[in-house]
């Protein structure tokens, strides 16, 4: 090839005014990243081949053409100073009429010229049929959403001549041919792959293209100088390939050597007595043939489901079926707890000397001290062997979109579910998950909407060759079948069905295309029996809790709303004194919530690990649903407001969870009305008017309470399936017709939420293509519910507005950020508008996505601010003990 220089910039230099990097060389950089990555990841190459046989050698070449839209006249004019210096003649002509972003013009050029008859891609055997169009969309649409198809009739229609000068088109053609000379063996033809296979591959290819583009766009790794006078082949050999190898090492995304199948003691060295339970033994003994696999693990809270899930993950990784794991949980609090557990365990999944990364992925991950302590612990030292300590490269840690590329990730459901929604760069999330095991804990926490999205996500995971492990204590049989069937449809097609007949508990359910369905009943690893008693009134509950506290019992009272929790806390403080009562709910400023969560774990955590265990006796914790899931805490006695039976089982999992010697007989006390056959219409809404907005199906509540009280005592895990199916399954009994109105309304809302999930979720078999949802102004949510907004608490001190926290930069401000219902607060108080407007310009984020509330100190450590709700002034109170509340201004 003769030497030539490009007349098209692809990247402008951040460190050199007027500096630039050519479109050709940037695309070659991306191709080199893809080439090196595929050589280092046999798993990805196999996944591509499984979807489209013979295509994996072509992928680097395809990614090397992802930015052909940058040859367009509109794109080149975006940096006029650079463009004039490169090719001044462009500005002697009028600008062309097509003013579209380069993914759209790239898709247009690909279909109309490059892959059309006579084009350089057509000469290689590529075309413009439906599957090929999806491949083109996957590559050119690497900026967060698929490109607009301007080749079809409509308001967006445009011709190549409206977007590109003839010289632009010639440069693009020349690039394709020169790259083919470098990367495609002489005479090779694009494999004949069916359109449906290419549609499925398009998701994985788009995620890979985004990754390669992002890495090759990093100017610290791909410098914009010392490239002049090089032919494309010379640049490929002397610049692109060495830089790609170095950049991939620094990024932290390359696969790490994995451990072989481990014994239980090797897998769980943090356990003082690493003897597997029957569930864990069943997981260790599971014969993992060729995948992909879905495994559903059902057992009680505290039974070691996490360790069982890790045993299955280890087996899949040892077989080469996965490179890592992402552990998904329902909340940020449970994610933080799991992250701390995984920090001491995850390196065991990898070979000795490996340097695997671990990432915490949720909205407040950057403010986790544990995560901050390991960020870039060794991530900037390529080639240095790991020492078994937790670590994470800066490049992975700086964005939640990249977090799922880590070897081990822990985070909320939402971070995975975004991969199944038309959200920006969703395919990058799918790409990260498909390489790993998706391990979902507390599956029962998904409501109808989230369950619908989860089914779409596991369908994607199955289609792309990834495996799924789901864990639950209270999963209805119908939901188990639906999720398993969704995965199987991802593998075998949308018409696939599965028959699950086993109703034993505990249970392992497993499926793979090579082994079919296995339903493995598991022996009980131990049982717990507790009595069930009813409390008819709040007064009775307060008296009972106070009495048990005076008898030096530690007690937890779980209330269904923050308001009810605060009322109970105030009454118990009046009875026992503030030193014996703690309050824990979700409506605290983040700094206070973190402090209280730490205090809860210190007092009520696992024996030997609770730093303040001496303070347990007689302490009362009044809490909301924040204690239901994944917090390893333990109480002598448990009181709960009436809630759905599966949540009562979860709450009972915190009742005498650990061995602490002699204790009173365990009893779950339920505050609620008697489940009489002539229950009035306001049976639940009367005593619990606020909780009626939380739990809307009175029939489910009535049935669950009646089952529990009729039994008088519950033995878990023996009774778990009977209780859950007795409310949600085919064996559910009859309930008073007076409760039907709210129950029917709730069922309608549930069906509507499931329908909305099906409407919002992307369809894996459709391929990566532009839908109306991609271009909607409204973001597609991962959760439904009442709209929320973020308020930002600020300290008004010394005539200035200071951040709520004590740290530096954005972290100090985020310590005062709190999500509340939109109906709680409408706007800033007029008295504060001028001060906030003057101050916010100095904030790192300018306060764009929050409502700032200046707060002034009150006696006793509380703070008070003002705001507007429904046109009237309200007071905002932030109390470090009671949380944030809103009251009418006096």
SSE inventory with pairings:
Blueprint (H helix, E strand, L loop, with lengths): L8 E4 L7 E3 H18 L1 H10 L7 H5 L9 H4 L3 H7 L15 H13 L5 H4 L6 H11 L25 H18 L11 H22 L15 H20 L12 H4 L10 H8 L8 E5 L6 H14 L6 E5 L2 H12 L14 E4 L7 H6 L19 H4 L2 H4 L4 E5 H5 L8 H10 L1 E4 L7 H16 L3 E6 L4 H16 L14 E6 L3 E6 L6 E8 L2 H13 L4 E4 L3 H15 L4 E4 L5 H15 L15 E4 L13 E5 L3 H8 L14 E5 L26 H14 L1 E4 L3 H9 L11 H21 L27 E10 L2 E4 L5 H6 L2 E5 L5 E2 L1 H10 L11 E7 L5 E7 L2 E8 L3 E6 L2
Parallel strand pairs: 3-8, 4-6, 4-7, 5-6, 7-8, 11-16, 12-14, 12-15, 13-14, 15-16, 18-22
Antiparallel strand pairs: 1-2, 3-9, 9-10, 11-17, 18-19, 18-20, 21-23, 22-23, 23-24, 24-25
Helix pairs in contact: 1-10, 1-11, 6-8, 8-10, 10-20, 13-14, 21-22, 21-29, 23-24, 27-28
Structure description:
An 8-stranded mixed β-sheet has the order 5-6-4-7-8-3-9-10, sandwiched between helices. The relative contact order is 0.08. Helix 13 runs parallel beside helix 14. It has 31 helices and 25 strands. It is globular, with a radius of gyration of 29 Å. It is α/β, with parallel strands linked by helices and 890 residues long. It starts with 8 loop residues before the first strand and ends with a strand. Residues 1-5 and 376-388 have low confidence and may be disordered.
């Amino acid at each position: 090839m003769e030497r030539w220089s490009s007349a098209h910039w692809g990247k402008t230099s951040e460190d050199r005014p007027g500096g630039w990097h050519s479109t050709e060389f940037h695309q070659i950089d991306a191709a080199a990243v893809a080439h090196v990555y595929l050589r280092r990841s046999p798993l990805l190459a196999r996944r591509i081949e499984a979807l489209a046989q013979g295509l994996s050698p072509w992928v680097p070449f395809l990614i090397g053409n992802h930015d052909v839209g940058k040859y367009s006249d509109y794109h080149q004019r975006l940096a006029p100073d650079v463009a004039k210096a490169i090719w001044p003649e462009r500005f002697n002509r009028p600008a062309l009429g097509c003013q579209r972003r380069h993914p759209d013009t790239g898709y247009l050029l690909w279909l109309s010229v490059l892959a059309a008859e006579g084009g350089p891609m057509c000469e290689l055997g590529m075309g413009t049929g439906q599957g090929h169009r999806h491949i083109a969309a996957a590559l050119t649409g690497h900026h967060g959403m698929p490109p607009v198809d301007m080749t079809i009739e409509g308001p967006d229609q445009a011709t190549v001549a409206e977007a590109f000068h003839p010289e632009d088109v010639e440069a693009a053609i020349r690039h394709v041919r020169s790259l083919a000379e470098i990367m495609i063996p002489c005479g090779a033809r694009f494999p004949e792959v069916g359109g449906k296979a290419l549609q499925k591959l398009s998701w994985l290819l788009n995620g890979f293209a985004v990754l390669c583009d992002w890495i090759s766009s990093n100017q610290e790794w791909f410098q914009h100088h010392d490239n002049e006078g090089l032919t494309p082949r010379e640049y490929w050999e002397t610049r692109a390939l060495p830089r790609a190898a170095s950049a991939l090492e620094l990024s932290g995304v390359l696969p790490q050597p994995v451990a072989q199948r481990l014994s239980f003691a090797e897998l769980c060295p943090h356990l003082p007595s690493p003897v597997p339970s029957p569930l864990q033994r069943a997981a260790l003994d599971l014969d993992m043939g060729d995948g992909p696999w879905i495994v559903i693990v059902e057992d009680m809270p505290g039974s070691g489901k996490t360790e069982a899930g890790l045993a299955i993950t280890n087996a899949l990784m040892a077989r080469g079926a996965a490179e890592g794991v992402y552990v998904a949980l329902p909340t940020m609090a449970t994610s933080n707890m799991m992250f701390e557990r995984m920090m001491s365990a995850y390196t065991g999944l990898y070979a000795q000397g490996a340097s695997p990364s671990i990432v915490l992925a949720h909205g407040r991950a950057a403010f986790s001290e544990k995560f901050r302590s390991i960020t870039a612990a060794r991530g900037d030292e390529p080639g240095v062997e790991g020492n078994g300590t937790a670590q994470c490269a800066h490049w992975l840690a700086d964005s939640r979109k990249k977090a799922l590329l880590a070897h081990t990730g822990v985070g909320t459901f939402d971070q995975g579910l975004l991969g199944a929604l038309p959200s920006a760069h969703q395919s990058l999330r799918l790409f990260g998950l498909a390489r790993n095991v998706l391990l979902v804990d507390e599956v029962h926490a998904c409501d109808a909407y989230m369950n619908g999205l989860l089914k779409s996500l596991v369908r994607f995971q199955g289609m792309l060759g990834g495996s799924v492990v789901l864990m639950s204590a209270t999963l209805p049989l119908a939901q188990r079948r639906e999720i398993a069937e969704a995965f199987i449809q991802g593998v075998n097609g949308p018409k696939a069905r599965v028959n699950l007949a086993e109703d034993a508990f505990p249970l392992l359910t497993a499926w793979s295309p090579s082994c079919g369905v296995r339903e493995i009943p598991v022996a009980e690893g131990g049982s717990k029996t507790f009595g069930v008693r009813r409390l008819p009134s709040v007064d009775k509950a307060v008296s009972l809790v106070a009495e048990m506290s005076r008898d030096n019992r530690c007690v937890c009272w779980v209330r269904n709303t923050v308001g009810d929790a605060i009322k109970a806390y105030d009454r118990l403080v009046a009875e026992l004194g503030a030193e014996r009562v703690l309050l824990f709910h979700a409506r605290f400023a983040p700094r206070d919530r973190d402090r209280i969560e730490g205090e809860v774990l210190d007092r009520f955590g696992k024996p030997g690990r609770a730093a303040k265990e001496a303070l347990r006796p007689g302490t009362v914790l009044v809490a909301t649903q924040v204690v239901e899931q994944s917090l390893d805490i333990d109480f002598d006695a448990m009181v709960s407001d009436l809630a759905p039976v599966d949540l009562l089982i979860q709450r009972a999992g915190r009742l005498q969870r650990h061995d602490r010697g002699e204790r009173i007989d365990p009893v779950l006390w339920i505050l609620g009305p008697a489940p009489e056959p002539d229950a009035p219409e306001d049976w639940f809404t009367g005593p619990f008017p606020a909780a009626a907005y939380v739990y809307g199906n009175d029939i489910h509540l009535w049935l669950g309470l009646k089952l529990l009280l009729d039994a008088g005592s519950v033995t878990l895990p023996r009774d778990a399936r009977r209780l859950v199916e007795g409310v949600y399954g085919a064996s559910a009994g009859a309930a008073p017709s007076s409760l039907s109105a709210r129950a029917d309304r709730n069922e309608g809302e549930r069906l509507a939420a499931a329908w909305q999930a099906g409407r919002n979720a992307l369809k894996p078999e459709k391929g990566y293509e532009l839908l109306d949802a991609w271009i909607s102004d409204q973001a597609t949510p991962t959760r439904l519910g009442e709209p929320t907004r973020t308020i930002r608490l600020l300290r008004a001190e010394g005539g200035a507005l200071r951040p709520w926290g004590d740290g530096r930069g954005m972290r100090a401000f985020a310590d005062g950020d709190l999500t509340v219902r939109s109906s709680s607060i409408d706007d800033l108080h007029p008295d504060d508008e001028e001060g906030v407007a003057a101050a916010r310009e100095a904030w790192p984020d300018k306060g764009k996505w929050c409502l700032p509330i200046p707060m002034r100190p009150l006696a006793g450590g509380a703070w008070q601010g003002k705001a507007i709700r429904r046109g009237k002034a309200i007071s905002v109170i932030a109390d470090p003990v009671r949380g944030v509340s809103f009251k009418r201004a006096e």
